[in-house]
Predict the structure.
Amino acid sequence: MTVLFSSLDELELPWNWSLEAWGVAGGLIAAIGTVGALLASLFLIRSERDARRQEERRLAAQEEREHARQARLIQAWFTKRWLFEDVVADDLVISNHSGLAIFDVSAAVEDTETQAMETTIEATWNTIDAGEEVSAGLDFKPEETHGPVIFFTDAAGRRWTHSLSLGLHEFTGDL
C-alpha cells in the first residue's frame, strides 16, 4: 500500500492556506449558507402569507358577490292598471326573479323635489316567494317620484335596500 502523505503537514493546499484557514473558510461558508437559507425561508414565508391574504380577499369578494346575487334579482317598478274603459290606476310591482323567497318586504318612494325617501311605507309583504310578483295600489302619481325604494331580507337573513337612484346596498339601519 502506498502512503501519499505521512502527516497532514506534508499536505499541499492550494493558495498556501493552512488547515486552520481552511477550517475558518468552511465555517464562513456554512454561516453564509445558513444566512442564505434563513433569508430564503423568510421570503417563502412572506410569499405564502401574501398568497394566503390574496386568496382570502378573493374568497371574500366572491362571497360578497354571492350574497348580493339574490338581492340583484329583486326588481320593483311602477305600472298602470286599467280599471274601466277610461280609468287607470297606478300600481307598484315587486318581482322576485331569484330562486329563493324574500322576507319582511316593504316599499317606499323617493320624492323628486327633495331626492329623499319619504318616511311613509306604501306597502308591506311578509314573504314574496321565488318567482312571485306582487303589486300594490298607490296613493300618489309615480311621475312625482324618482321611483320605488324597497327593503327586504334575503334567504340568508341579510337586509337590503334597492332603489333606482341609490342602487342596491346591504342595509344596516332600522326602518
